[in-house]
Amino acid sequence: MRWLAAALAVAAACHEPRPAAPQPPAAIDAGPDADDLGLGSAGGDPDEAPQEERIAAVEHAMNELAPVANQCWAVAASDDFQLAGTIRALLTIGHGGARVELTEDQPGDPLLADCLTRVLEAYPWAAPLDGQTIELPFRFTAPAMQNLIDRRMVAHRAQAGLDVAVLLDAKNSGNPAVGLIDVRAEASRGVGPRRSDRDELWVLTAPATVVIGKARTPLVAGDVVVAPRGASLELVATAGAPIAATVALLPGGALGVARAGALPELLPSQVPARPPSVRIVAAASGKRYPRAGGATTLLIEQGPASLGVLEADAGAVVPPHVHAKETEVLYLIGGGGTMTIGGVAIAVESTSVIQIPAGVEHSFTATAATRALQLYSPPGPEQRFKTMK
Q1: Which residue from 62, 61, 78 is spatially nearest to 19, judged by alpha carbons?
Q2: CB within 10 Å: which end of the chain, N or C, has fewer?
Q3: Per-residue pLDDT, 37
C-alpha cells in the first residue's frame, strides 16, 4: 500500500533513523468502541454517507493504522519504554487529507505525539468520511521490560564531531546490567583521552589506532579494546577515516550523558590512585568452537562480561534455556529469525539488539544464516560452547 510506505516515511521523518516492521509485543490497543468514534458532520452535507458506512470506514482505517501507530510507539520507546496511556485525536477530514488536533495526550511524549499526528495526516481516508469530524482513541500499554531495539529507530546525538546512539540502557530496556552504544567520531576529533567511569568493551567497526602511553597500535574492525573503570582511553584515526565502534558499558544504568551525545567519564577527583591500563584483544586471537548448526568464537572470557561472535546456520534452533545469574545481549550483524523471550515470539533481523535478563527463558530459531556479537554479564554461559558438538 502506497499510503503505508508514505506513513512509514513520515515516522522516519519524526526520528532520523529509518523505521522497520513493527516489533512485537504490540504496544497499542487502537480498536475504538462505537462510543469512542465521535462521528459528526463537519459541513452538514445532506448527501453524507449512512452512519453504518462511516463506522465501517473508521474501523477499517483503525485496523490499518494500528501497526503504524505501534511503529510510532517503538520509535519513541527507543528512548523510554515506559510510554503508556491514551492519545485522542480529533480529525477533520476533507478531500485533501485530515487536519489533526490531539485532545488528550497521556503519554506526554512529543516524539510519539508528532509521529502519530503525521501518520494520521498522511492516511488516505475513505470517501464516506469526507466532511466528517472523528475523534479516535489510541491506547498504548507499556511492557514490563523491552527486550528488542531496532538500531534504525535509535536517535543519534552529536556534538563536537562525536555521534552517539544509545542502544540499550536502563531507561529503554528496564535492565541496568548492561549498556550498549554505537559511537562514531570524526577523524579530526578522535576519542579521548578520557577516563572511563565504568568498565567498557569497545568493539571496533572501522580501523583506528589506540594510544597507550607513547605506543600507537593500529587496530582493524573486529578488534576489541578493553577499558576498565579509570583507564585512560585514546583512539585516533587511521588513514584519515572516522572512528566507529560498538561499546558495551558495564554496568549500564541510565546513560543520560550518552543520550546528549557525549561519552561518560570520570571527573579528575574520581580517578583511582593507580588507574588500570587498557588492553587489546585482536579479533584474530579469538578461538572458534564449531558445533552442529553454527559456531561461536570467544574473544573475552573474564572480567565483568564475556564477549564472542555467534554464528547460526539457517534453520538452526537454540532450544529454550535460562541463565540464572547472567544478562545476555545480542547485537545482530546479519541474518535473523525468531527469538522467544518469556513466552513471547519476536521477529529479529540484522539491525536488532536483544537483551535477555537473568532468569528469563529464551530460545532462537534462525530463518537465515545469522551472525551476532554475544555478551554475557557476568561471564559463565559462554563456557558451554567449548563442549557443544
Answers
A1: 78
A2: C
A3: 55
Give the range of the structural domain holding residue 249, as residue numbers without chain letter.
Answer: 148-283
On whether both 38 and 108 belong to a single domain, the answer is yes
> Are 207 and 265 within one domain?
yes
pLDDT at 29: 53
136 in the same domain as 46: yes
Last residue of a domain, one of 256, 283, 310: 283
**Read out DSSP for 60-121?**
HHHHHHHHHHHHHHHHHHTT-S---EEEEEEEEEETTEEEEEEEEESS--HHHHHHHHHHHH
Read off the C-alpha cell for 366. Answer: 534462525
What is the per-residue pLDDT for 46? 52
85 and 207 part of one domain: no
pLDDT for res 67? 85
Pairing of strands 85-94, 132-140: antiparallel
- Residue 48 CA neighbour count, 13 Å, CB half: 19
Q: What is the pLDDT of residues 219-268, one digit of tens each?
A: 999 999 999 999 999 999 998 999 999 999 999 999 999 999 999 999 99
The single-letter code of the amino acid at 220 is V
Domain final position from 283, 309, 340: 283
To which residue does cell 469530524 refer? 133
* Ordered DSSP codes for 190-240: -EEEEEBSSEEEEEESS-EEEEETTEEEEE-TT-EEEE-TT-EEEEE-STT
Buried b (16+ CB within 10 A) or exposed e, 112-136: bbbbbbbbbebbebbebbbbbbbbb
Structural domain total, the chain: 3
If asked whether residues 28 and 81 sit together in one domain, one would say yes
Assess whether 129 and 154 both reside in one domain. Answer: no
Q: Which residue has the higher pLDDT, 327 or 11?
A: 327
Tell whether 312 and 267 lie within a shared domain.
no
165-193: average pLDDT: 96
d(CA 323, CA 380): 9
